[in-house]
Amino acid sequence: MNKQIVECVPNFSEGRDTKIIEAIASAIRTTDGVTLLDVDPGQSTNRTVYTFVGSPDAVVNGALNGAKVAYDLIDMSKQKGEHPRLGALDVCPFIPVRGVDMDDCVRCAQQFAKRLSDELNVAVYLYGYASNLDYRKTVPQIRSGEYEGLPQKLTSPEWVPDYGPNEFVAQWGATMSGARKFLIAYNVNMISTKEQAHRIALLIREKGSEKEETNRLKATQAMGWWLNEANIAQVTVNILDHEITPIHAVYEAVVKHSNNLKLPVTGSQMVGLVPLKAILDVAEYYMKMEDLFILDEDQKVHLAITRLGLNSLGPFDPKERIIEYMLKNDNTCPLINKSVKEFVQLVGDRITAPGGGSVAANVGSLGIALAAMVAKMSYGKKMFEHNDAIMRRLIPPINLSINEMLSLVDTDTNAYNDYVLALKLPQTTPEELKQRENAIEMGLKGAIAVPLRLARISSKHWDSLKELAHIIHYPTKSDLQVGANCLKVGILGAYYNVMTNISDIKDENYKTTITNEIENYKLLAERSCNQVLDILDKRSA
């Protein structure tokens, strides 16, 4: 039931003429089904990065509409800039965001390449996951020689375009269309020469000078350039996989080599959008390194921005630069975004969903939220100083589970709706009957998986609640009593939903395993809730 979302990040070779930049933006923005999230022009690079999202078909249309405008307005024979480039629309990657996989994005890249070549009669190369040729799989491989070397390159049989004519179009050049993981375009600012910045880039990037071998950063591309508008140099880095090499690893590596050369680093710059997890990973790194205790997501984001100096060349607004924050209003979580009144009234309507599963997730999340509240109320003041170490250990996992459990409110309803769709499948032929039977079985397992996850998340916190019961500020006693009961009710709700759905499952091994697991969670909840209440009842202060 999740909406399909693909991200497209075309890089156009124009970063100075505001009329051209806006004309391309307008063409993308007005495409049906597309949401333009960011337009990031660069004067020195003479390049603009556009970021937009939509369904697979919509983003292909958006990229094509932008390209058509660029074809009329950009003349590559006159274009110069610090950034390497192959064509007017230099690269056009498609990235999976939600409800799609890499295969879907490969299809987007292929469709876009074909339509672009057919409609504009230009050469298009596939790259990344869309390419099947090892020698032309990466952007640097294909871009080697750049626009100026393209006429010669096109004469080689090895460089026949994947789509379009094997001819040099001076006005356009060539385009690369690909599918990739989320790429983070990240620049570290230095007061140095362009050559010194490039020397550091060679030291850190995955493929650098063999004479300067060192601990290289995997899944990175880097070079040094001069940023004329800021009168500084930058080490500009493409982080191809931030799970392999996080942002802070790049920043710290540049700082280390800059210190060795007695050159100052003055902050850094993010180009385009960045995933929330990548920013939170930065915060976690500095929290661990500096022994900091921070709970709230927005404060972690603030720490990451500060430590990396992301505001050094201009404001870094998380609401406009972090992709998940840009997508918050896309109505993919309709239940938890409702007011309390709206949610309760919706539950009370004559409809089957939201039902007991969503309510159980809601009640359970309230229970763990109350546990987080009483823990926070018993931390940070001098009178609670003796419990600091305990609270620093207990609070983070409890706090993390609030949103995990809250997300299940919508997930449960979505899973139920998937099951209902399976029930409506045709059953007129033996093949259709078999397909319907398999879909129903999968739908039931999906409907079971959500409450089971709720029970798993909730059950791991009982020991923490018992520990809190001994040490929390006594006036918050009733809040933890309510919280423990809410947590138990959430688990009981999960139990009832699992048992209702599992009766129709045909997979006996699955049925036995899940039944035993959920029964254990139910017994644990009943026993542990009583223990928490008993501890609180025996306290006098």
Structure description:
With 541 residues, the chain is α+β, with helices and mostly antiparallel strands. It has three domains: 5-179, Formiminotransferase, N-terminal subdomain (Formiminotransferase-cyclodeaminase, Chain B, domain 1); 184-326, Alpha-Beta Plaits (2-Layer Sandwich), CATH 3.30.70; 340-538, Up-down Bundle (Four Helix Bundle (Hemerythrin (Met), subunit A)). Helices cover 53% and strands 14% of the residues. The chain has helices spanning 18-29, 56-73, 102-120, 139-143, 146-153, 194-204, 247-260, 276-290, 297-308, 318-321, 323-326, 340-347, 356-377, 388-423, 430-459, 462-471, 477-502, 508-538; strands at residues 5-8, 11-12, 34-42, 47-54, 89-98, 123-128, 174-179, 184-190, 220-227, 232-239, 265-271. Strands 1, 2, 3, 4, 5, 6 and 7 form a seven-stranded mixed sheet that branches. A four-stranded antiparallel sheet has the order 9-10-8-11. Helix 14 runs antiparallel to helix 15. The longest helix has 36 residues, at 388-423. The two termini are 50 Å apart.
